[in-house]
Amino acid sequence: MKRKLIILLMIFAFQFGTAQETNCADKESKLAKYLSENDYIKAKEVWNDIKMTCLTSSEKSFQLGLQLQQYNIEIASREDKEKEVREILGLFKLYDKTFPNNSNGNFEKSAMALYLNKVGTNNEIYSLLDQAFELQKKTFQDPEAIFVYLQLYVEKYKAEKSTITSDKLLSKYTDVISLIEMNKETVPANQEIYDRVLVSMKSLMKDFLVCENIVTHAKNNFQNKTNDVYWLQSLAKMLSVSCKNAPIFESIATELHTRKPSAKSAYYLATYNLNTAKQDKAIEFFSESVKLESDKMTKATTAYTIASILSTTDKEKSKEMVLTAIENNPTNGRYFIFLGNLYANAISECGTNDIEKNAIYKLASDTVLKAILVEPRLKGTSEELSKSYLQKIITTKANTKSVKIGCWINQTVIL
């Protein structure tokens, strides 16, 4: 008899639990429906019921409640604004307590609820953003929130120089940059926004981003950060701007290129070698950067850099690189002007007689005029150069219509 009673109680409990779950799901569906229809009066009635009986049943309950509370904040009077914001902060806190493994980013959202509605203190906002950074980094993705986080830390540094050193400030800056670089990979749709934030943060930090500070910070932290690819990327980028010939720049760029070889890491090594008078190694790494680069515009720019460096010492390689630049960015007229000049400067090495020299000047003229087709604003420059080349053509008795130019130019020119 006792055993039957226990079984009946278990069946009753199961049926009650199932009914409760079904009832909560129905309420969630109603709330979602009313919110989609902007019927906030009925939505509030259902939400009050959910708070009493179903709030812990699923994350969806919290998410719908947060949506309703955000509406309450938007319509609140100035006098009631803080009350409604505090209400949503309490909901964020309960959300994390009830579902500690959620991915809603509630610290970040709490901070921005305060910041955007001008509620609370800077210390309170910073504290929430710092918790987002330390405890919910994977969901700390709002570009504006990340910028505010750094901005508030800079303000703390200015107010508390006795407790926050310049090295700590740079540590925070590099940590935040590392977060953005990570987010650019996980949220590629926001890449342009993140890039704009990086520019704004650099402007915010301009007084601190001097070579001496960056080098000191890099040396102090390098050994402990060799496994942190994002830190290496951040420091390499800063050093490439301010400290191009610092030995620590080479160390960091080499470590980065070893752990995560990319067009950028190769470019950093090329930059260091170029600025320490190691041109051959610089060209080697610039060439590797071109091969690894997937963005056509960047590939063209790097190829043009190589062409410019080699324009007097290795014209054949220079021509190859400027043609690569044209292939990847055919709308840049200056590439054609560069190539035309390259041909014109080859007279002494590729023109063995007057006919070949005439052909080279004609080729140079034709090439610079191509710039006008892709960039009409270069018309004046192109036509002036073309005229100067054509004026150098020598009249000969030979009645030659086409000339084959060998050397590294290797083209046939119609005269």
Characteristic key phrases:
two-stranded antiparallel ribbon, TPR_rpt, TPR-like_helical_dom_sf, Tetratricopeptide repeat protein, elongated, signal, 2% strand, TPR repeat, 415 residues
Give a written overview of the molecule.
Keywords: Signal, TPR repeat. This is Tetratricopeptide repeat protein. Helix 10 (211-221) runs antiparallel to helix 11 and helix 11 packs antiparallel against helix 12 (247-259). Strand 1 and strand 2 (411-414) form a beta hairpin. The chain has helices at 2-36, 40-53, 59-75, 81-98, 106-116, 122-135, 143-159, 166-186, 191-204, 211-221, 229-242, 247-259, 263-274, 279-292, 296-309, 315-328, 333-344, 347-350, 354-374, 379-390; strands at residues 402-405, 411-414. The protein is elongated. 35% of the residues are buried. The protein has a two-stranded antiparallel ribbon with strand order 1-2. It has 20 helices and two strands. The protein is mostly helical and 415 residues long.
What about the largest sheet?
2 strands, antiparallel
Arrangement of strands in the largest sheet: 1-2
Q: Tell me, rounded to a whole number, the average pLDDT.
A: 91
Poorly predicted segments: 4-20
Strand tally is: 2
- Shape descriptor reads elongated
Helical content band: over 70%
Strand content: under 5%
- Helix-strand topology string: HHHHHHHHHHHHHHHHHHHHEE
Distance between the termini: 114 Å
Structural class: mainly alpha
Give the C-level CATH assignment of the domain at 293-415: Mainly Alpha
CATH architecture of the domain at 293-415: Alpha Horseshoe
CATH topology of the domain at 293-415: Serine Threonine Protein Phosphatase 5, Tetratricopeptide repeat
Radius of gyration, taken over Cα atoms and rounded to an integer in Å: 33 Å
Signal peptide: 1-19
Protein name: Tetratricopeptide repeat protein
TPR repeats: 263-296
Keywords: Signal, TPR repeat
